[in-house]
Amino acid sequence: MGAAPRFSVVMPVYNVGAYLDESVGSVLAQTCSDYEVVLVDDGSTDGSGERCDAYAAAHDNFTVVHQENRGLLLARRAGLAAATGDYVVTLDSDDALRPDALSVILAQIEAHDPDIVTFDFSRSPGFATFGPSRLGIAPGYYGADDYGLLRAEVCGGRHNNLWSKCYRRTLADVDADYTALRGLTHAEDLLQLLPIVDAGRTFSYVGEALYYYRPNPASSTGSYKPRQLDDLSAALDALLGYAASWGDEFLLAARVGALLQVNYLLHMLVSSRPEENTLREQVMRIRGYVVEASLLGPWVGDLRPDRRLEIRALERGDWRRVVRLVRAFEALKRVRDALARG
What is the pLDDT of residue 220? Predict the structure, then answer.
């Protein structure tokens, strides 16, 4: 047996025939060749599974795992279990890597040997960087004394996606049993990121967009489903637990970050335009979780003014005001975006 590859690129695949060739092609185009690709066919019905087999037949460094449809969380877990590389990179099968992404990450590994390399992402196929993709710290290497900066970013609700990270495979909780969470989709990447960030001690931040995240209205987060609150609450409960173990300052940041996630869910709910009874019921369900999880407190004042108003209305149980505020701020955002486009 040869030496383990430097990178394992783990790709969950489910009915992405329109984008799979482009996504896999972005890996094949990498300027660094020291990688393996683990494709996890999560019960695809559109021929994506057969195409995965064709990739593996054509490339010795490709492996395919076929399983019945178990959801994105368990597809990622299956890919991680099959990975053999020193470091893991996650690539969703409708997204793409910049051609030099692995080379840029490798340069950080060879220079600093970090546990985690985090990087910006883009919503443009040209890899233009946009503000929300950036960490709130300067690019560079951060040793053990400054590792809390990464934990603070995660607690604050920033960069909680798994696919903007490359991490040492030994950090992952590979043997943990996630089967009870089968079907969990919303915030599944945060749930899996937390034990990795907990186990790490050093990181590098590359202030460049190495990953293309394709906006997809049909994705699992494109419209509200009642199950999403259950998914989010599982992830946020885990976030609050880890943050409490890291210290009071992290717990405070996590409560603010959790409210940002709740706010995002409210916007998704209202934008989905359910009928009125469903809208009221789901807003009050979200409020019930916020109260039960002790997310309300003085830290609400740390939220941006629009979000603060929405959360205060939610705190009072005024579901109609929540809806009016969300719709008003969404309309303002559309006007602002139109003006920005000229």
Answer: 53
What is the band of 217 on the pLDDT scale with cuts at 50, 70, 90?
low
Beta bridge partner(s), residue 119: 206
The partner residues of 37 in beta bridges, in order of sequence, read 9, 62
User: What string of DSSP letters covers 164-221?
Assistant: GEEEEGGGS-TT---GGGTT--TTHHHHHHHHHHHH---EEEEEEEEEE----TTSTT
Torsion sign over Cα 21, 24, 30, 34:
negative
Confidence of residue 218 (pLDDT cuts 50, 70, 90): low
Amino acid at 277: N
Side-chain half-sphere CA neighbours of 35 within 13 A: 28
User: What sign has the CA pseudo-torsion 73, 75, 77, 83?
Assistant: negative
pLDDT of residue 68: 96
Q: Which are the contacts of 95, defined by CB distance < 8 A and separation ≥ 6?
A: 19, 23, 163, 211, 212, 213, 214
- Report the DSSP beta bridge partners of residue 62: 37
Pair 181, 241: CB distance under 8 Å: no
The letter for the amino acid at 130 is F
Q: Which of helix, strand or coil describes residue 6?
A: coil
- pLDDT confidence of residue 337: 79
The pLDDT value recorded for residue 340 is 72
Residue-wise pLDDT for 167-206, tens only, equals 999 999 999 999 999 988 889 999 999 999 999 999 999 9
Handedness of CA 219, 222, 223, 226 (dihedral sign): positive
Residues 285 and 279: their CA atoms lie apart, in Å, by 10
3-state percent helix, strand, coil for the chain, nearest multiple of 5: 50, 15, 35
